[in-house]
Design goal:
heterodimer; A: 108 residues; 0% helix; B: 113 residues; mainly beta
Chain lengths: 108, 113
Amino acid sequence: RKEVEQDPGPFNVPEGATVAFNCTYSNSASQSFFWYRQDCRKEPKLLMSVYSSGNEDGRFTAQLNRASQYISLLIRDSKLSDSATYLCVVPGGFKTIFGAGTRLFVKA
Amino acid sequence: NAGVTQTPKFQVLKTGQSMTLQCAQDMNHNSMYWYRQDPGMGLRLIYYSASEGTTDKGEVPNGYNVSRLNKREFSLRLESAAPSQTSVYFCASIPGQEVYGYTFGSGTRLTVV
């Protein structure tokens, strides 16, 4: 099992749709997680952090399921500007693991 | 604007040439990292510097060297470029605690022919 696994997608959704991505991780000792957003040919930028059961920021909700070792990112009311690649990250200093990302395309 | 600055943004090298990628941050962060990103793969750590004066190998250090010149600057050197080093390189920094996340530079797109 890879340390961090994400469905590469792409996910193609219409504007206004709700879309969810999952990320599974192998290290059961991991306590915190990040979701990063990466636009085409740009650097990753922090979207949300997840330290307990979950976190919500506007249209974005991140949830953590420790028993099944996965985190999810839910985007409600998708906007064209949400089109990007979403990276799941398990922090750990020099042992930080970045997922390969899930691509999202939101269409008008 | 505060952040991480990388130069150059683009570079084409011939096999065997050398070059240095520059990175500077003005956020007074302690730790700095160099990653490479290849299609279909997550970011992979090349080298890191936990604090000024220290550097350590990451997951894929072969063919690279680094220098933590001072707290602000962390450079990555390719001594003899190879086509396998064609990639996008990102420098990143964090303060002492990871809770605030990594701040990345805008990246260097390197092609080795």
